[in-house]
Amino acid sequence: MITTAIRVARVGSAAELAAAVLLMLGFPALMVAALVPSVPAFVAAAAVTYLADHYLHHKGSYLINRLSKVRAGLSIRFLIRQLLLVLLLARLSLSDSVIFYSAVACFIAFYGLQAPHGALVTLIRNRRRLPVATRNVDLAARVRIPDAPPRLLLHRSAEKVLHLDLFAVVGILLSAGTGSDLVGFVGITLTLVLAAAYDLALMPYVRGDRIPPSADKVLAAVDDWLHAHRPETVLYFSGSKDSAYQVNMWLETMEQLDSTPLIILRERTMMERLAPTTVPVVCVPGGVHLMNMDLSTVRVALYAANVGKNIHMLRVPTMKHVFIGHGDSDKLASVNPFSKVYDEVWTAGRAGRDRYAIADVGVRDEDIVEVGRPQLAPIRTGQAVPADARGGSADGRCPTVLYAPTWEGWDDNPGNTSLVLAGENIVKALVQADPPVRVLYKPHPFTGTVSAQAKAAHQRITALVEQAAAERAAGEDFTADADALALARAELVRIEARLAELTGSAETRDEAEATREGLVDVEKHEEIARLRTEWNDAHWRAFPAWEHRVITGAEPPLYDCFNVSDAMVSDISSVVSDFIASGKPYAVTDSAGLGAEEFRRQNTAVRAAVILTNGATELSGLLDAVRDPVADPLAGERDELKRYLLGPDEPKSIDRFNTAIANLALKAESRNLGQSARAAAAEPEPASELAEAVPGQHEANGPAAG
């Protein structure tokens, strides 16, 4: 019941739900206490409403936003509490007293001071919202960006200024309870003085040298930097904060380009979700600002998603435009008809080309280039366990099978995940396998967020894996080198301490300061990357090679789980497509019961897989392939499917990617030279007339302004 209430109320926990209930009940209780009247009851109810309100704000509760939509926002709640306090004074027969009139005057003046406070905060925030936000762009040398006001002044400022009424409320309640007006006057004075001081503390940040530069000056500084940096290849992205993974997956590839890279984002929220990178990043929310930006040196623009804002870049004719997407799959999104607008569409392998041909959405075959998937480079090929240990060895080494099911999805389609119908059967078969195998269970992070059945299945599977791990550790068949494990765990502690030192020391900055100080420390960035690699290695050495594991969270990453595994069981998802790069045996569950033949026909990625029914009786075929790779009947089909989906191993994908960029850049340069030659050969009179007809138009080698 509580779980249902949490889901309906859209709160994050039982504590948050309890705080919301207390807040809703607290105000009627305040009214009753005022009418009775009872000072102690009023004090208790007021304390509950203050604390519950503060807790919900601290948690960023969805309910707080909903209350403001029904005219019960933060200011209204404080005002109601103050009015009820005035009602309490009246019911206590204090309506003719000095403290009554002082309380009324105090609350009126208090709200009068909130008007300039709100205006000052809004003005400061608007002025500090620059037309662009950047990372790894040296703007500090080109334009002065002053320090932001202390976080204490601006962070949750409305909540802070409203809570200054606490002094007056407490003082007035004490005065009502004790009959002494002095304590009430002290509280009232403190509230008004602190509210006025808050306003005065904000005023210096709206004048003089604490005002950030104008939008024109900032944009001119960005253009000056672009002129010096001379970017040649741009990764352009627009999307919601939840789609940040679509651009993050390309960051490492951009760092490895032979040409000069630049990343252009369109939403400010994306800057917070962008992973660390050494590539310069410019976020330009305004379409006009982007279209007037000097991108005359860019020859290739890469697009990771099909969104409406792409038009602001697609309109620039001096560069070639390429759709690279955010993963190859059989989903309809992979053959969007919008892809016709690009000069080229790059796919991982032949499968992507065939997908467009079958869909017949207008993308020409000659405009498709196969470049592989550079992101899959960390995935290693070959078995993770030596040949002499595939059937079990004296020191306990045994093959590792990764079970990585996807989540249940937003609908009730039984084919989305194997967890509910097949998950327990799969795990039971694996932990009871003879010769033994090690099981790594890594569920999708969204597992159980929609379906209670999936959540319960996940919990049962977790219990199965943990119980099997405990039984194996207690038995005599498996041993571990205690000294080696202790050494690896000590190394983990050292690495984690250093990572915390490198990543946890950054001070909270507003967007303008982050733009000013956003130059990456390359040495620090490289050290963090090296330490993460060392952490992954030490992590696996910190546990026995035979120990069953449940792996949740971002660490260790999925690809690292691939590398320590000898086989995988999964569902239809990008996980399967990525695992194919390893060349290792894999199984996919036909949870919807389509039948093996139809299942393979509908899903290209399972053509070389062992197909499992919900009973998981076919798992023996996967385990046989792991223990005796020579006799693996699907090895040849996996190699063929890998080439079909991802292209050849040589040349490397990043090399093919760079070659494709270089070839397209030559086409763009050839086009631009041709346009320049035609313009030079044209009569001067028509050119002059055209310039007069289109005022403000940029040169032929730059983007238009309209």
Give structural attributes.
about 700 residues, alpha/beta, six-stranded parallel β-sheet, 29 helices, about 10% strand, disordered C terminus
Q: What would you call the structural class?
A: alpha/beta
Assembly state of the chains shown: single chain
Radius of gyration: 32 Å
Percentage of residues in strands: 5-15%
**Overall 3D form:** globular
What is the average of the pLDDT values?
87
Point out poorly predicted stretches: 690-706
Helix segment tally:
29
Compute the separation of the termini in Å.
Answer: 57 Å
Helix content: 40-55%
Would you write up a description of this structure?
The structure is a single chain. The chain has 706 residues and is of the alpha/beta class. The protein contains 29 helices and 14 strands. It has an eight-stranded mixed beta sheet with strand order 1-4-3-2-5-6-7-8. Strand 5 (300-303), helix 16 (311-314) and strand 6 (320-323) form a beta-alpha-beta unit. Helix 6 packs antiparallel against helix 9, helix 18 runs parallel beside helix 19 (452-474) and helix 20 packs antiparallel against helix 22. It is globular. It starts with a helix and ends in a 13-residue tail after the last helix. Residues 690-706 have low confidence and may be disordered.
